[in-house]
Amino acid sequence: MATNIPTKQVWHALTIDETIAALDTNPEMGLESWQISDRQNIYGRNELKGKTGRARLSIFIDQFTNIMLLMLMGVAVVSAFLDLREGNFPKDAIAIAAIVILNGILGYVQESRAEKALAALKLMAAPNVRVLREGKIAELPSAELVIGDIVFVDAGMQIAADGRLLQAVSLKVREGALTGESQGVEKFADRLFNADESLGDRRNMVFQGTEVLQGRGIMIVVATGMETQLGKIANLLQDVEIEETPLQKRMGELSQVLVIASLVLVVLVIGIGLWRHGDLVKLLNTSLSMAVAAVPEGLPAVITVTLALGTQRMVKRHALIRKLPAVETLGSVTVICSDKTGTLTQNKMVAESAFTANYVAQIGGTGYEPIGEFAISRLAGDMLASDLSIYQCPELQILLAAGVICNDSYLQKDNANNQGANGLIPLPTGLDKSQWQIIGDPTEGALLTLAGKANFRHDQLISYFARVAEIPFSSERKLMSAIAEIKSMDAEDTPESIRTIAALLPQTAYILFCKGSPELVLERCDRIHNEKQSNPISISQINSINTQNNLLASKGMRVLGFAYLPLENLPTETELPNIENNLVWLGLVGIRDALRGEAATAVQISQHAGIHTIMITGDHQLTAQAIARDLNIFYPDSNRVLTGREIEHMDDEELTAIARQTTVYARVSPEHKLRIVQALQRSGEVVAMTGDGVNDAPALKQANIGIAMGITGTDVSKEASDMILLDDNYATIVAATEEGRTVYANIRRFIKYILGSNVGEVIAIASTPFLGFGAVPLTPLQILWMNLVTDGVPALALAVEPAEDDVMERPPFNPQENIFARGLGWYILRIGVIFGLQTIALMEIAYNSGNPSWHEHWQTITFTTLCIAQMGHALACRSDSKLLIELNPISNPYLLVSVIFTTILQLALLYVPSLRQFFGTNALNASELGLCFGFSLLLVLWVELEKIGFRWWSKRRLSASAK
């Protein structure tokens, strides 16, 4: 009965008969209707299901639980009460309420992005499938599949559920969505695998969401819906909890500090004021002004705009930011977990090495473009006679020609007149016209590119060496042979390169070229091509070939062996299967997915910046290890390679203990990737994770910053990510990290600018009840103007301050550090006290000078001085160490413009009647303005003198340590 089906079986370890028995089905007839009904009731439809997310109303309400906004709401209520009590219009309360609402909307917009990763996963389900039920073949929606169904698998279709193969005929499936590897995987129905075999090596299974490249087969469904490998990824995606970014944590801490400090001051001012028999209403007005002054209302907007500007700069460097906080998170990244294929490598097979009896060649170039240099040396005991031309090496010429003739792929590119460049056929409609493309097997394509680099034209070779028969490749033989008829070379227009190759070969009517596994090709050879002739192959030559093969394989290369056989007559069909014997050995070609040209440099830059690179791949561990060695991220003495199978047997504590020492993870599954990221995070690392497949989505979502590939990435990986690489390039991550560090440095720069002023304002306002001024110097409305406009506009300009020269020479920012770390808190407190004392001195002079005009306008003088002093402070905040006169004034022209613009706005509040009435200011005369500008300069001078003092102290300390 259906209720007894053991759905947790290790299906790839069971025989076909055991699988059929366990699932209680009939491979000849399929399931019966009662079985289908029972199983649908028990296991549900073959669909991915999502969890209910937060309601948008709940997200909006949550924005107003922020402690700073709560305090401002309290201030607005008290302010409205006091204004209405005195019969005044509550404009201060309305202004504060407007700021609260705007900040709430801003937070809601950032947080209310719907989670679309699961929706993208659902699109991967096949729409219809062919199923055998009750002895009849039917086509039905994939959602109706049940465990035990017999499903027909054909080229071009997407697999609709997880299944154990009952039959496979030349079946090849692309499983990149689950394993991350783009190469097709050959499938076999009759093989068994270990219970702990990695997902990519379960060759008798097919999985939902993967694509059939060629062949056909029959599978029995073993898992549907959320129990499939794709469903498990969906579960992992939904189980990942989104953590706050370092910036969000720091802003939360900042809010708490500001609110607690301001409430303590309010209590102290009211308490001391009442103890001294002060007026409660005046004390409340003072407290309201202090509370508004303490809260940097414009800070959330400035940070949001700063992050948005950072995203624009990153787009220019090919990085698209999907979530604003990710910009700053990049500045704190300590580990980059990178996929291998397509990110660190080109995702294009490139022939890099060739060996023949007498020559060794290293070949340059990138991708499939047939341009590259040959570095050739002659083998004679030791390497001698280097820097040879390909045309001086007959063995290599024949080897390259064999790679073209024994080949089923095409190398293509369009040009203006739609004719094939370099004799290659035109590019089909719909392909990228800006790059060379391989149509067919990438490994065979690498051989075409190799020949193209020597100017051996594909169209000419196959014209004069016309294929007339073929012995196809199979996984059992691991060989492919093509028989070519050698055409007449007598015509005058015969290319010289073709004549040369023909002259190097035996003068026969036909020739067989063979390629495949080096060991198997070599077994069939009894001769070796030596310069322009063939000789019997010796034991020492066989040993040398095996050594060369092992050397290339140890570098992570796919190695092909080549041989040929002269034929006087075309073999018959019965002779063909046994013709591949007594061959003449030609040589070896080493092919691999080569490193991106800029990857090694980018990894080196990140290492200098204190960022470690870890490779996580579904590929074989030897291949991954070879690439990691080339990148200088793997050293056998100090690093280790972990496979998915090893991770499977580790608990979380064990994995956490060795995660930091492991630089290469191979043959990993989606669960493993997620566990690796979590282990690194438990070790205190800030993790950036790259990925392009569905299998990467949970880890992308878990990472502090998930980075999806823009070109090869699936919709699922992009929706789960924080950032998308538009060029799929590791170097772009490093460039984006530099931008992230610059953004964070600028955020700290304008925080010290804004909060230094706010502390000064609070000190000045707090002193008024005890200095006998009779009123507060600033109203809540004026303070809002300062915090939003005269502070906010220059702060935005500081946000685009250029990166410092050593930004990528410093270690990453500690994600656990407080926003006030590295002297920022001390600077804010110190400058705030100086600013406050300066303002108190100004108020004393204006209020008690005996000048009636100054006495009457003392509040406007204070307000104006505070605003203008901020302009000079903004200029001084550009650098912690360089003096204002040492900075290039046009390196940040936005700051100059903002200072001039804000100063004009401030003066407008004094001399435009409507603004003067609304903000409660007075028009100042020349002496009063002179007083304002004179006192404003004092803060700038103090900051500049501090820089000189710190510079002197640093030199003195260095001199003392040198002694």
Automatic annotation (TrEMBL):
Chief location bin: membrane
GO biological process: intracellular potassium ion homeostasis; intracellular sodium ion homeostasis; potassium ion import across plasma membrane; proton transmembrane transport; sodium ion export across plasma membrane
First-level EC class: hydrolase
InterPro entries, per the entry: ATPase_P-typ_cation-transptr_C, ATPase_P-typ_cation-transptr_N, ATPase_P-typ_cyto_dom_N, ATPase_P-typ_P_site, ATPase_P-typ_TM_dom_sf, ATPase_P-typ_transduc_dom_A_sf, ATPase_P-type_domA, Cation_transp_ATPase_P-type
Membrane-related topology note: Multi-pass membrane protein
Keyword Membrane on entry: yes
Coiled coil: none
Subcellular location: Cell membrane
MF annotations from Gene Ontology: ATP binding; ATP hydrolysis activity; P-type sodium:potassium-exchanging transporter activity
Any single Gene Ontology cellular-component annotation: plasma membrane
Cation-transporting P-type ATPase N-terminal domain boundaries: 10-84
PROSITE patterns: ATPASE_E1_E2 (PS00154)
Pfam families: Cation_ATPase (PF13246), Cation_ATPase_C (PF00689), Cation_ATPase_N (PF00690), E1-E2_ATPase (PF00122)
TM region positions: 59-81, 93-109, 257-275, 287-309, 827-847, 894-912, 924-943
Domain of life: Bacteria
Keywords annotated in UniProt: ATP-binding, Cell membrane, Hydrolase, Membrane, Nucleotide-binding, Translocase, Transmembrane, Transmembrane helix
E.C. code: 3.6.3.8
UniProt record similarity statement: Belongs to the cation transport ATPase (P-type) (TC 3.A.3) family. Type IIA subfamily.
Protein name, UniProt field: ATPase, P-type (Transporting), HAD superfamily, subfamily IC
Natural source organism: Pseudanabaena biceps PCC 7429
